[in-house]
Amino acid sequence: MKVALVFGGPSPEAGISRKSAESVESALKKLGHEVFPVEFDKDLPLKLMEINPDRAFLVLHGSPGEDGTVQGLLEVMGIPYTGSGVAASAVTIDKDLTKRILKSHGIPVPAGITLYSEDEVAPEELEFPCVVKPARTGSSVGVNLVKSPDRFREALKEAFRYDSKVLVEELLEGKELTVGVINGRALTPVEIVPGREFYDYAAKYEDSSTRYLVPAPVNSHLEKRLKSLAEQVYKVLECRGVIRVDFKLNRFGSPYVLEVNTIPGLTERSLLPKAAAYEGLSFEELIEEMILPDRGER
Questions:
Q1: I need a surface site. Which of 2, 42, 85, 277 has the fewest CB within 10 A?
Q2: Of the residues 17, 23, 261, 270, which is catalytic?
Q3: What integer is the mean pLDDT of 36-65?
Q4: CATH top-level class of 112-170
């Protein structure tokens, strides 16, 4: 196929997107596809018209790009694309909306509040430690663990630098886990063991001491529960292709959904390829699964 590989853009996560694109481009070429790398900017429609691809492979992280905007453009242009559609992308980029929908379906999510300005809540009204994060960023951009009231304002200010809506959530004290889903089927859970206290941006992309355990050392009951929840999330949010669902356990070992990634990272440190590899799926085979026409396409 003639494939337009769309990446980059103005998102704070564009650097990770470009790294993912390098890996994907190599895999697509090995699979025999004709690849046209396309940096996401205001000229994207013109670039796509010139290429006239059979399919667009989206490696966009964060907003704009992962939030349904590019998906909507491609729908209008009549270009098939990888991953979830407009509605699912728009909802899952927003952790607040995602939590509301999942909660309405009985899927456990962390307790918390949503803020639209820095002066909506006073530190003395909250319980610490807590997690402060922008509602619509990924890769832990702007996310902070706040242990005491005197650090709250600073964390809040940083989060509002990235978004006009911010979540303040309870800190769940158990393991951090993630589950990839391919076309509705959950993969083996992966445990994330950060080399520092909190799994922030630096722990994800800069700290070599962060470890990823595949498969996650959990009992069979918890593994089934994680897979079942991930598949429920996929179905409830009407996702397509591949997604990754991030979980945190509470101190009693019960899982809660933290967020949903509709365009998971595809770098050498990314978690979806690790889980796929454990199940015998090479990186090239994973990319082929992603680019195959989805039964849900119109």
A1: 42
A2: 261
A3: 96
A4: alpha beta
CA dihedral 68, 72, 75, 76 (to 10 degrees): -170
- Record the pTM: 0.91
246 is catalytic: yes
The residue from 139, 140, 144, 270 that is catalytic is 139
Dihedrals phi, psi of 230, to nearest 5 degrees = -60, -40
Residue type, 199: Y
Catalytic-role residue among 55, 136, 240, 244: 244
Catalytic annotation, pick one of 8, 13, 200, 241: 13
- The catalytic position among 62, 180, 246, 270 is 246
DSSP run (H or E) holding 88: helix 86-92
Strand ranges in 205-294 using DSSP code E only, listed in sequence order: 211-213, 242-249, 255-261
Mark whether 261 is an active-site residue: yes
Is position 13 annotated as part of the catalytic site? Answer: yes
Tokens of 191: 């445990």
The pLDDT, as a whole number, for residue 98 is: 97
Whether residue 294 is predicted with pLDDT greater than 90 in this model: the reply is no
Say which CATH topology domain 92-108+172-291 has: D-amino Acid Aminotransferase; Chain A, domain 1 (3.30.470)
Among this protein's residues, is 139 annotated catalytic?
yes
> 298: which residues sit within 8 A by CB, 6+ positions away?
none
CATH architecture of the domain 2-82 equals 3-Layer(aba) Sandwich (3.40)
Q: What is the 3-state secondary structure (H, E, C) of 38-82?
A: EECCCCHHHHHHHHCCCEEEEECCCCCCCCCHHHHHHHHHCCCEC
